[in-house]
Amino acid sequence: MNELPVGRRVAQWRVRRNMTQQQFADRLGKSKSWVDKIERGARRLERVSNLREIADALRIDVQVLLAERPGRPAAADSGVERIRTALAQYDVSASPRTPDVAQLRAGLEHAKQSYRHARYPALLTLLPGLLDAVRAARPHRVTDALLVPVYGLIALTLVKVDQGELAWLAADRGMAVALATEDPQVSAVATVPLCQALRCCDRNGAALRAAVVAAHRLGPRDPAARFGSLRGTLLLQAALAAADRADDRSARGLVDQAVALADQGSFGGEGFGPAAVQAARVLVEAARGDLPVATVRHERLLTSDGWRWMPPEHRAAYLLDVARAYASAGEMSRAGRALLEAERTARSEVRDRPAARELVAAVARSTAAPAALTRLAATLHVT
């Protein structure tokens, strides 16, 4: 059904609900002729309000009508398969030579930079070999500390390409290595990608608990402590997980803790700081349905000094979440502008993420969408 035009989907769902065109028209307050033209494609469904009315009448989510699930690029499929193969190898032999830790660290740093700049196709190619190299260098305590972030990067990259369960597997592998080190910092590092993988799988309660426990284990809530940035990142992950499960009170409380931490320290270089906190606050406000307040905070964030210092991946991913919130509220013009800004910030965040391509397709169908978004949808072949 995902390959069908919207009108044909309407017709199929109407039949599934055992309604005639006249009964469906009566339920919508439209004429039978109007319904017939919609189902034949002679009349386009351009207004979001009409789409919602039809979806409500059919008792389905509006995205079922909108989403022609654009396929993942072939390169992404092959990259995911290489990672799957690497994760399935349980017989990696330790190298007889002393590991070149400096070279492994350089490879890890290159992968981290690729992620910060949202180079997902490159990461899907790079990460299987890096995983094999670090695993072959074990058992050494220093290589265990390298293996944890490698598994974490694999998990984060898989989340980007909608491979939630596989991401969870990679994050769990990293957590197992981290717990064996009995180092709270290493465990906390492993918890960040674990939370994102759990959230990708809609296991927000588990993500919330994991992030709060890891933050607590880092020690006193002293903003000058050496783990301030990591603790702050965990608090934000917990807040977003709470917001996803509609736990508004916990979400706002956790963001407030992160605000206090960010206001008393300078952690921007670590990916945590006032701008990252404000971005999370915008998403929390949007999740609780307070879009006007979220919009004010969002526009203020975009003009702040800290915004441009956030990694391109973080900024673009945030803009995608903002676009999704606007689209859910029927604000298609704003959703389109946020998508275009995300694509300008980090092309791969929009072009190589299936969820982003779906969102582009859905927003581009609205007459309120910017013309540039319509052109982007055509370029991505998702119209």
N→C terminal distance? 16 Å
- In DSSP terms (H or I, runs of 4 or more residues), the helix count works out at 21
CATH fold label of the domain at 6-65: 434 Repressor (Amino-terminal Domain)
Low confidence ranges: none
β-strand number: 0
Helix content: over 70%
Provide a descriptive summary of the structure in words.
The protein has 383 residues and is an all-alpha fold. The chain has a domain at 6-65: lambda repressor-like DNA-binding domains (434 Repressor (Amino-terminal Domain), Orthogonal Bundle). Helix content is 72%, strand content 0%. It has 21 helices and no strands. The protein has helices at residues 6-16, 21-28, 32-40, 48-58, 62-66, 74-87, 101-116, 120-136, 141-160, 164-181, 184-200, 204-217, 228-244, 248-263, 274-287, 291-302, 312-328, 332-345, 347-351, 354-364, 371-379. Helix 9 packs parallel to helix 11. The longest helix is centred in the middle third of the chain and has 20 residues, at 141-160. The two termini are 16 Å apart. The mean pLDDT is 86.
Task: Describe this protein with a few key phrases.
single chain, 383 residues, mainly alpha, 434 Repressor (Amino-terminal Domain), 21 helices, 0% strand, globular
Brief write-up:
With 383 residues, the protein is mostly helical. The chain has helices at residues 6-16, 21-28, 32-40, 48-58, 62-66, 74-87, 101-116, 120-136, 141-160, 164-181, 184-200, 204-217, 228-244, 248-263, 274-287, 291-302, 312-328, 332-345, 347-351, 354-364, 371-379.
